[in-house]
Amino acid sequence: MPDLFDSLMPRVALPPGPMLRTSRLILRPLQESDVPVFHRLINDWDICRRVPDAPFPYPESQAQAWIAAAASAREAGRAEQFAIVETLTGALVGCVGLKLSKDRKSAELGYWVGRPHWRQGFALEAVRRIIDWAFASLPITQLTAVVAADNDGSLAVLRRLGFKQTGKGHRVFSCRPGEKLPVKHFTIERETPENAAEPLLTQKTATLLVVAAALIDEQGRVLLARRPEGKKMAGLWEFPGGKLEPGETPEAALARELREELELETDPNDFAPFVFASHAYESFHLLMPVFLCRRWKGEPRPREGQKLAWVAPGNLAEYPMPAADRPLIPMLRDFL
Length: 336
Description:
The protein is an alpha+beta fold. The protein has helices at about 5-10, 35-40, 45-50, 60-75, 120-135, 150-160, 250-260, 330-335, and strands spanning about 20, 25-30, 80-85, 90-100, 105-115, 140-150, 165-170, 180-190, 205-215, 220-225, 235-240, 240-245, 270-280, 285-295, 305-310.
């Protein structure tokens, strides 16, 4: 059965960009046909006084220019702006987006919802979705937000989603030229359990045995896989592999995981034991033997929504990894 949202969409091609879904919303690229509704919703004093770059009155020409600029910024890798659309009706209810820093390690969050759609939880739903997507799909390690000090609704949304207030200050808002209004600064970091306080391991702490492979191609590059949305530590890169099933040897488990995750056929006799990782996480201790593999049949295909990258050994440190994987980087770099 076709998606109801698709049947309500105008029969025109959307600009390129991600399409994100929640239980009630679609976050999609903005398009020129959004201009009239975008303008009608944002041309509201109670919205403009909370959006730093929004003048008031907000001219329709600026709405058109802003939407065009959003497409250019996405293409250039400087920003990701989304229309917030209600799935059942196809109605535009607001916008949410990210402005990336020059080094693409952080991004500033911004959003607004039109007055007819207030107090329905749309902002919370949209912001939660873009946080999950951003940390899983972009190279950023943190999100920031600057909120008017009297914007109680946005302050509540950010705090509920785990943002921490990092400071206070003043900022010029376009709707009040020449004035500096009080604002609060917030930050949320990518999920990094290894940054938590060192766990107090006890005799009851379980040891989790997993196995991983450093697949090495003819150019001497190593294959990394990026954990997809919905998984713990989404957005971090790791070596392919997984947990052992009852009765499996590490080599048999690795051959099975490579088949299930990447559609690769391997011979366990081609796995060369290389090193092992041992790391204490908060609720378990991970033990991970790592094998080198230079022979397989097929081309790696991501079957679990993960992204893949062939990486030169000298560049492995540029890819954020779970704490258990990071000590492997200098070993591979020096060996290969």
